[in-house]
Design a protein that fits this description.
381 residues; alpha/beta; 10 strands; 10% strand; 3-stranded antiparallel sheet; Sulfotransferase_dom; Rossmann fold; 19 helices
Amino acid sequence: MAENVKVLDVEADVEKKLATHFGGPKRAYAYFGEDKYFIPKTYKNHADGIRRMPLREDDIWVATFPRSGTTWTQEMVWLINNKLNYEKAADSRLMQRYIFLEFRSFLTQEIIDELYSNQAESHSVFVDYKSLVNAASPRFFKTHLPMPLLPAQLLDTARVVYVARDPRDVAVSYYHHNKLFKVFGFTGDFKDYWEFFKNNQVEHAPFFAHVKGAWAQRNHPNMLFLFYEEMYKDLPSVVRRVAKFFEKQYSDEQLDKLCEHLTFDNMKQNAAVHPKWLRESADGAKVEKFFRKGANARALSNPREVTRTLPAFKDEIRYLMEEEVGHQKSYSLDETQQRIPLFQVCKSGGWRDYFDDKMAEEAEDWIQSNLRDTDLRFPEV
């Protein structure tokens, strides 16, 4: 039987610092496991149960540190394991096809009532892991939990696809995510956020312990370790690797069609990937319960509206609509009908637009320091 997960309270000065920069509903944090993963304290009531939860041999898991290519990978993995059934995928939301394992355990009931009560379409993500015994097979799981907090027998039982991404790009994307979503409500600038990120004070940190924990298991026959940068540079090769990992055989023509389906232009228009509250609103009603004030649902579905009505959140919407898909193929029109690359900041290596020289040097030193004890290296883009 798996040992109980070690839990320590976060220091008072850290909690105080968080309160000055994160304006969302107050949430207490704790350190979980030997690597002191920074996770909402509510998870304390679930950590041991998830470590011991029953598994099935046909379970399929997609695991990542947040903002590392989760959505992109989920769509690819699900289709490969469902006979490339695009019609079925289009008829069911990605959040309904996958169980977001820890989501419910990170939130208090008060936060759910305050922020999610009118998001009926989102309620499927509030499943309690204890009820999963009744879920039909095969079960598809999405998780941002690190390997030491996942079920102890996971790799000996089920198959796992883990995706890693350059931490500098992760930090930029996570920054936009934390600014836009009201559950976080980050109020600082990117320099402020970078301090939290590199000091392991954002959810699921420390980043390197998270990634290296999976990297150490990369040769296990039930683990496929991917890099976001590989998907960005050569998606067809990655698609073929994933198909081989799951022992699925498709023709080159079928896999080429899948790659086309997974391009950025197609993914951002995919209603099954982007929930209705993200893409559109019939009456243009605000969804301020979920997003920071000023984020209009109709604007989220129309990049032109982003530039016109939501200038304060333009960058945040870019990353939200990108949903971790990095292909720079989409353009929008501003009021003067000039073509502008609205989504260019989402490309791999886009972190360079956010780090000044001093920050870039500091980040490089931080990365190298954390890679000294491993042969893990992030691909160049």
